[in-house]
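User: Is it possible to get a 3D structure for a protein together with its bound compound? The compound here is 2-acetamido-2-deoxy-beta-D-glucopyranose. I've pasted both below.
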Amino acid sequence: MDTRLVLAVVLVALAWMSAGTNKMAVEAMSANSTNGNMTNGNMTNGNMTSGNMTAGHNMTNPNMTNPNMTSGNMTGGQNMTNTTSPNPPGPLTTNTTVEILETTVNRSECRKTRLCVATPENCDPATPDSCLFVSFKSAGGQNFAFELSGETEGYIACTISTDSNLGGNDNTYVCANNNGIVKFIPALLNDDKLTETNLSVNSVKGKVNGTKVQCTFDATVPDPTARASARFAIGVSNGTYNSSTGKLGPPEIKIQTNPVNLANPNATVTNQVNGTAANTTTPPAATTASTTAGHAIALQQSLSQALLIIMGVLGLAML
Ligand SMILES: *[C@@H]1O[C@H](CO)[C@@H](O)[C@H](O)[C@H]1NC(C)=O
Ligand SMILES: *[C@@H]1O[C@H](CO)[C@@H](O)[C@H](O)[C@H]1NC(C)=O
Ligand SMILES: *[C@@H]1O[C@H](CO)[C@@H](O)[C@H](O)[C@H]1NC(C)=O
Ligand SMILES: *[C@@H]1O[C@H](CO)[C@@H](O)[C@H](O)[C@H]1NC(C)=O
Ligand SMILES: *[C@@H]1O[C@H](CO)[C@@H](O)[C@H](O)[C@H]1NC(C)=O
Ligand SMILES: *[C@@H]1O[C@H](CO)[C@@H](O)[C@H](O)[C@H]1NC(C)=O
Ligand SMILES: *[C@@H]1O[C@H](CO)[C@@H](O)[C@H](O)[C@H]1NC(C)=O
Ligand SMILES: *[C@@H]1O[C@H](CO)[C@@H](O)[C@H](O)[C@H]1NC(C)=O
Ligand SMILES: *[C@@H]1O[C@H](CO)[C@@H](O)[C@H](O)[C@H]1NC(C)=O
Ligand SMILES: *[C@@H]1O[C@H](CO)[C@@H](O)[C@H](O)[C@H]1NC(C)=O
Ligand SMILES: *[C@@H]1O[C@H](CO)[C@@H](O)[C@H](O)[C@H]1NC(C)=O
Ligand SMILES: *[C@@H]1O[C@H](CO)[C@@H](O)[C@H](O)[C@H]1NC(C)=O
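Assistant: Yes, that's possible. Here is the predicted structure of the complex:
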């Protein structure tokens, strides 16, 4: 009898303590600073949605949605005073001098840091197999690092169009086999005519091995006016080059894409020349596991409280 009494009292006490702990946690959580300036004090568990934090405070678990700190934990003593982001870089200074490309253009950065487009689909320009390939990596602002590779008797070229059609005065970057050495020719594509011009390009590197030409360069692409992001139709072609006259033959267009954001390594690209996807995206699987787990824990806590209370009541009843 005595043992039962002791057991019952312990169980009832446990039930109350358990409920009390959660109640305290809820009260602490509801004390969120939502709009204010924190100049003196420690914020250990709250959401700061608006205001400035000036110096020397430690925030161990804050959610700050505004100002300027959108994600991350501030753990100790930092000052949030420098909130301006650096300006994007401007247009590149033109220099079309070609240095020897010591590396081989390959697929290793595709979908990681580079948007890649190729025909045949997913071919690797590092292999001896026939492969026409272009890739882009954002270098800030309207600047992009290009890689171009393909087989040709003359030149390979990449055209960037601000509309969905190739050939309306579109920037074209030509790498020609000039007696075994790459010559870089910036040009405009009008219908099927290439006319040499001045484009904002530098850091050109290139190499020739038989009919395989590879080149890399940095270029400033046109500002896409009235567009949310830099979307361009991409064209890749090859053609003849007369090294004594410098004449470029009409481009044989092997790749023509839908307008894509060059800065997105996972952009969905369709080659409209043969209608196959050149770089398809697998949508990420939706993850609901974490929220489900959160609910499960809450449910488990309520259940264990209920169980403790029931056991306490039962214990009392048995007396
Ligand atoms: C925060 O500081 C600004 C300027 O220092 C002041 O105008 C504003 O009233 C302050 N807000 C609060 C909630 O103290
Ligand atoms: C902030 O925390 C420190 C160290 O834990 C403490 O000494 C100080 O009194 C706290 N300040 C306030 C305003 O709670
Ligand atoms: C604080 O953030 C938590 C987690 O994001 C959220 O559940 C809670 O509703 C927020 N509180 C306020 C007052 O915004
Ligand atoms: C935060 O600081 C900025 C720049 O100093 C100021 O314009 C703004 O009013 C401040 N906000 C608050 C809530 O004090
Ligand atoms: C912030 O801290 C929490 C708890 O320590 C941790 O789970 C979370 O990953 C942290 N977030 C970042 C962006 O460091
Ligand atoms: C802030 O964190 C640092 C490092 O963790 C610690 O040395 C300092 O005492 C803390 N300051 C306050 C006010 O809690
Ligand atoms: C933060 O600002 C205070 C006051 O302006 C200054 O004394 C302190 O050195 C600053 N701390 C850091 C990490 O910049
Ligand atoms: C902000 O930080 C950047 C990079 O750290 C620096 O270049 C810039 O001068 C800073 N701006 C101010 C106003 O301190
Ligand atoms: C152009 O680039 C080449 C190779 O990088 C370099 O040697 C040359 O000095 C550059 N010319 C100018 C005018 O900057
Ligand atoms: C692109 O998607 C793949 C999976 O489809 C993923 O592993 C990769 O991290 C993504 N890359 C970027 C830059 O989002
Ligand atoms: C040229 O290509 C052939 C086969 O495609 C390869 O065996 C050879 O090593 C390459 N030469 C150079 C200098 O890269
Ligand atoms: C362009 O590439 C194709 C292979 O895709 C090749 O058959 C053709 O001869 C090339 N054109 C020139 C002018 O080299």
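The chain is about 20% helix and 35% strand. The CA atoms of residues 138 and 144 lie 5 Å apart.
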